[in-house]
Design the sequence.
């Protein structure tokens, strides 16, 4: 595994002296989704998926059948793959947003599926077998809502295969009702005791109907970076070489995407960039 | 040639190729939404009118000196502001104005945008609608017909809000346009269509731009923001192309862009 040896090597890489070019991937996010529809307002304390948000590069679509997104998938940040057997490393992140404040999550969206019914209380197949982070270590599962589900709060569990290859069942987690039914809502699925990742997703079981079918699914993602915003109007600049958690590898074909844990209900509008080098 | 060592880089920073001050007085803007400082004083730019490629010599641009054969970069920024905001420095690649907030049907006045002379493929180039004279208070939506980074014409941006009393009508408002499914850049814009009249013609136009670096404000008026692109700055040290028209966007949490003053230190890559 290659590494950035020292600051001299870093400077060399950043100014084009490496075998692979440095890359700054800029993005914008607007408070509309899927080609102009109004995005659901963020809910304080709830995570919002920015996958369908309009912007540059363009919005992503609900997956439908099981899908294994890459950097070519519509909605991804579209960074270039490293060449020549090199590794790509995320070394910086910058973000400007206005009234919103909260925490951004950058993750590699490695698998997703949608089309699940929030009125169906039978086990709903959600088979996902990712091709990146294949041992599942550090992979998180999320329940992602693409079309609003019902107002009746209930719970659900995810049946999955853990990082050791063993079948597991998540603790029950809340779904449906205000704050957990809106489109673009992204619900973090807890892991069973002792587990540290999800190797495969198998199925979702709702305890009860939420009373509206809507459209939801399972997303598997490998978190790469969290970026808290200190206050409304304050920007974010993270240098991963001098700060935690350190540079993050961006795998070949990585589908970089964002989720947002909001501190208020202000609709999101943002402009930002990732800084990456190849070693 | 790139900087081979940290010592080379620091030597270049200690003897910068150029130093420029970017200073702007406060503009009334819309909190939470990107606004352009193009027309803010001092060194105010103006509505471009006919489609044109702006350069470092254009009024409103940061007037830096080209580096010639060697790459030029902004290595350090010292910035202070009177309020919470973030600055995004951009290269304005092509702009025009003369579009109306009341015209129905596709508007082609002063379009298509002037052909890009920097980042000519359009890859990574973003597009925005920039308001130079206030348009109306009736909210509408707007779409733009454009040619994407692959040279495919007839692409249409998803609709975004324009006009209305929510701040999408005031001078300086910079509506960054989303792209059609699968696109990653804009090579040119050919037409703009409002869903209806905003009630006031005003004047707005298309700006094609490439973001270069961002200066976030951590807390206003407490201290300045000192950023070194390599040492703690996240590695954001893109090349500033010859004749780049450097200006800035601002995103604030209040209805003011606040007074901003940024010192930009340009370095020239090693021989």
Sequence:
């Amino acid at each position: 595994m290659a590494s950035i040896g020292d600051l001299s090597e870093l400077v060399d890489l950043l100014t084009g002296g490496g075998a692979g070019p440095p890359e700054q991937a800029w993005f914008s996010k607007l408070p509309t989704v899927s080609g102009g529809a109004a995005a659901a307002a963020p809910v304080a304390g709830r995570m919002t998926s920015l996958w369908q948000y309009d912007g540059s590069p363009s919005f992503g679509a609900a997956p439908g059948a099981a899908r294994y997104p890459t950097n070519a998938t519509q909605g991804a940040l579209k960074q270039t793959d490293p060449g020549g057997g090199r590794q790509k490393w995320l070394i910086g992140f910058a973000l400007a947003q206005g009234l919103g404040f909260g925490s951004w999550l950058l993750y590699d969206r490695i698998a997703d599926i949608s089309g699940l019914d929030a009125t169906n209380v039978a086990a709903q197949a959600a088979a996902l077998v990712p091709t990146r982070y294949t041992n599942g270590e550090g992979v998180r599962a999320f329940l992602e809502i693409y079309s609003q589900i019902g107002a009746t709060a209930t719970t659900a569990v995810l049946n999955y295969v853990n990082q050791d290859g063993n079948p597991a069942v998540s603790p029950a987690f809340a779904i449906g009702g205000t704050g957990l039914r809106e489109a673009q809502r992204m619900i973090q699925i807890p892991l069973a005791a002792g587990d540290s990742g999800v190797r495969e997703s198998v199925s979702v079981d709702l305890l009860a109907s939420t009373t509206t079918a809507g459209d939801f699914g399972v997303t598997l993602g490998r978190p790469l970076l969290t970026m808290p915003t200190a206050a409304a109007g304050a920007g974010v600049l993270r240098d991963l070489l001098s700060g935690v958690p350190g540079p993050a590898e961006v795998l070949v074909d990585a589908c970089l995407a964002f989720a947002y844990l909001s501190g208020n209900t202000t609709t999101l509008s943002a402009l930002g960039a990732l800084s990456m080098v190849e070693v | 040639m790139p900087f081979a060592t940290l010592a080379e880089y620091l030597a270049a920073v200690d003897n910068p190729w150029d130093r420029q001050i970017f200073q702007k007085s406060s503009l009334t803007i819309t909190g939470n939404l990107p606004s352009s400082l193009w027309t803010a004083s001092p060194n105010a730019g103006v509505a471009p009118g006919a489609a044109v490629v702006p350069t470092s010599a254009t009024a409103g641009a940061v007037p830096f000196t080209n580096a010639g054969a060697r790459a030029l970069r902004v290595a350090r920024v010292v910035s202070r502001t009177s309020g919470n905001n973030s600055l995004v420095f951009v290269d304005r690649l092509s702009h025009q104005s003369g579009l109306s907030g009341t015209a129905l049907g596709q508007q082609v006045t002063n379009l298509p945008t002037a052909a890009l002379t920097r980042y000519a493929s359009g890859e990574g180039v973003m597009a925005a609608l920039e308001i130079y004279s206030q348009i109306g208070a009736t909210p509408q939506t707007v779409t733009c017909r454009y040619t994407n980074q692959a040279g495919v014409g007839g692409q249409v941006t998803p609709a975004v809000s324009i006009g209305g009393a929510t701040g999408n009508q005031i001078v300086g408002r910079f509506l960054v346009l989303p792209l059609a499914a699968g696109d990653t850049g804009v090579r040119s814009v050919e037409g703009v269509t409002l869903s209806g009249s905003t009630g006031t013609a005003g004047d707005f136009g298309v700006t094609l731009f490439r973001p270069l670096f961002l200066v976030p404000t951590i807390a206003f008026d407490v201290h300045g923001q000192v950023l070194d692109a390599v040492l703690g700055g996240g590695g954001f040290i893109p090349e500033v192309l010859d004749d780049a028209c450097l200006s800035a966007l601002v995103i604030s949490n209040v209805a003011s862009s606040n007074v901003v003053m940024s010192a930009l230190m340009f370095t020239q890559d090693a021989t």
